[in-house]
Amino acid sequence: MKRQWNLILALILVLIIAVFSVINVDIVTVNYLFGKAEWPLILVIIGSVLLGALLVGLIGMMKIYQLQRALKKAGGEIDQNS
């Protein structure tokens, strides 16, 4: 049941982001360290959301990897003590 709620919430969030992006279609100037570029705001919003999701996903994967390593280490210590 928890997965269904997570899926529903994710779909609602995607819908909100999509509506917000479609409303904002003006051209904006994006300043980089090495120059400027003009992009439609919809691309800036969607790109920011995707980069943020990627960053959160990578941090989550790192945390899972660390927890799995700690679990293996703790399991090995339990086997040695038995």
From TrEMBL:
Residues 24-79 form the Lipopolysaccharide assembly protein A domain. One of its GO terms (cellular component) is plasma membrane. Keywords: Cell membrane, Membrane, Transmembrane, Transmembrane helix. The chain crosses the membrane at residues 7-33, 39-62. InterPro entries: LapA_dom. The keyword DNA-binding does not apply. PANTHER family: MEMBRANE PROTEIN, MEMBRANE PROTEIN-RELATED. This is DUF1049 domain-containing protein. It comes from Lederbergia citrisecunda.
